[in-house]
Specification:
529 residues, Jelly Rolls, eight-stranded antiparallel sheet, 3 helices, 35 strands, glycosidase
């Protein structure tokens, strides 16, 4: 650079700096206020992971016995994706679910003319016999002809979980076994009590959804074992996951039907009993709420176990236009892909499953925050620093949250039909804000509803409510809520889990509300990290 040009640039820069410091006042937010703040999400998130570019699609978790950690493969969603070739398989590793180490792209898309132009869900296993990892995945053909298979099962292997080699000889096609040519996907591989490898594939036969089964001794040669189980009615079970936990066999799946669009499960003491859950459309549900494990804010859930605990990973969808009410209610569907959300599976004495907190995430949120009741409405009174009595339509408004929060409190209702909830994105001037309402469906059942409250609120938001669970016998609810930017997860008494995406939580106030009856609120705490 010539000296005169450099001197001119320096003089200009100095003039701009002087102008800025002399004439401009940097506006700072008074965080002690309670008015609404328009906050935005971070580009990259750690607890409920999102890559800095794009989003997480269908996770494929696997416990790596060699490394002693969990590997989560997932379909990378770029928005926009490349035409024809999209959703390469990327990977993460974690030991506790509290933070993730990105592994980058593991299995790339094929070319436009190859069977795996676009990739779809699959599963990973480790084979002690040859010391290799095997990932079975879905290959999606770009613009398939009538003679092509729109979907087929493919395989890649690796000696170190870093370098993956696609098999050029392995290809499992549904049309070769009487199944659909274009719906043959989401392979899940597990080892049965018979010592054989079992592969379950989501497909259709005679226009009815079914899970096809294949058997192998070496993961390379597979033989058909017929239909594992039919899917009930007109349903289609995506992302199947079969495992044994204690004395029970389980199938966890994601129901594709737009009216459902949730993660569910079946259970049986044997594989044969598990298969019988849907025989002749039997609908032998495992519990009182059709096996639902979460809301429509959690999808494509699959599990992995370290031998002590079993965890499930799924994605929490984004919302169109960052509109909290655009939840994809039927007949629409939620947006595809989002943040990676992890829960712990809780097995109860009768074999039923619920989802609960992950200890690693709880340990991460270990910094106690100052709690301040900014205002108490009529019908609300403070009993101590973190205990309150609320009667009728009352609330207590608390000081601002941070970007990542763990909110915990206990509610004791005075009767069997008392209604309460928690509101987020709430300011003292808000004309609308967002509430998780523990709603009495009857004297003995409850369900978490999502509502847009306030003078301009739309009220109940359909399509993102939770599932029915039993009222606690002592009317005591221990509630923990985790937020990471816009991802929000609520746990109640180890019997209910509710995931949703709510934009604007961070840096805004929040409240605990009574809607009807009377409640005692105690042990209110906020932790961050």
């Amino acid at each position: 650079m010539k000296p005169m040009i450099f001197a001119t640039l320096m003089a200009t820069a100095m003039a701009m700096t002087a102008c800025s410091s002399d004439n401009e006042t940097v506006e700072t937010k008074d965080w002690s206020t309670t008015t609404y703040f328009a906050s935005t999400d971070a580009q990259e998130q750690e607890t409920y992971y999102k890559p800095s570019v794009g989003y997480v699609g269908d996770p494929m978790p696997f416990y790596d016995p060699k490394a002693g950690d969990f590997k989560i493969l997932y379909l990378q969603e770029f928005r926009p994706n490349q035409a024809g070739t999209y959703h390469p398989i990327w990977g993460l590793s974690t030991t506790d679910g509290a933070s993730y180490t990105p592994l980058g792209e593991l299995i790339p898309c094929g070319g436009l003319q190859e069977q795996d132009a676009a990739l779809g869900t699959g599963s990973t296993v480790y084979n002690d016999a040859d010391g290799k990892y095997y990932t079975f995945y879905t290959g999606n053909k770009y613009q398939p002809t009538a003679d092509d298979c729109g979907e087929a099962v493919m395989m890649a292997s690796s000696p170190d979980f870093k370098t993956w080699t696609k098999s050029r000889t392995f290809l499992l096609r549904g049309s070769d076994y009487g199944y659909s040519r274009n719906d043959f996907r989401d392979p899940f591989v597990f080892k049965g009590d018979d010592g054989k490898w079992h592969m379950i594939v989501s497909t259709t036969a005679n226009n009815k959804g079914t899970l096809a089964e294949f058997l192998s001794d070496d993961l390379k040669s597979w033989t058909s074992n017929g239909q594992f189980m039919n899917m009930m009615w007109d349903r289609f079970y995506e992302c199947p996951d079969i495992f044994k936990m204690g004395d029970w066999w389980y199938l966890i799946y994601s129901e594709k039907h737009a009216a459902v669009r949730r993660v569910q499960y079946f259970k049986g003491k044997t594989l044969e009993e598990l298969k019988a859950c849907t025989a002749n459309d039997a609908s032998r549900w495992p519990d009182s709420h059709e096996g639902f494990l979460d809301s429509r804010g959690f999808y494509a859930g699959k599990t992995a176990s370290d031998g002590t605990n079993r965890y499930i990973w799924g994605w929490c969808p984004t919302r169109s236009g960052k509109n909290n009410t655009a939840v994809g209610a039927y007949p629409a569907e939620p947006e595809w892909a989002g943040n990676l959300v992890m829960h712990r599976l809780i097995q109860h004495s009768d074999g039923t499953l619920t989802l609960g907190e992950v200890q690693g995430i709880s340990n991460k949120y270990n910094k106690v925050q100052t709690l301040k009741a900014e205002s108490l409405s009529e019908g609300a009174s403070a009993q101590s620093g973190n205990s309150f009595q609320l009667t009728g339509n009352a609330n207590v408004l608390f000081n601002r949250l941070g970007t990542c929060n763990r909110i915990s409190f206990t509610v004791k209702t005075s009767g069997n039909t008392d209604k309460f909830g928690i509101s987020l994105v709430r300011g003292s001037d808000s004309k609308k804000y967002y509430s998780l309402v523990v709603n009495p469906e009857s004297d003995n059942t409850r369900k978490v509803n999502f509502e847009e409250e306030g003078a301009e609120g739309a009220g109940f938001i359909g399509g993102i409510d939770g599932y029915v669970f039993n009222r606690p016998a002592d009317n005591t609810y221990h509630i923990t809520i985790y937020t990471d930017n816009s991802v929000c997860v609520m746990y109640i008494n180890d019997v209910a889990c509710y995931t949703n995406r709510i934009y604007g939580i961070q840096k805004n106030c929040w409240s605990i509300n009574s809607y009807d009856g009377a409640i005692n609120v105690s042990n209110v705490e906020v932790h961050q990290y």
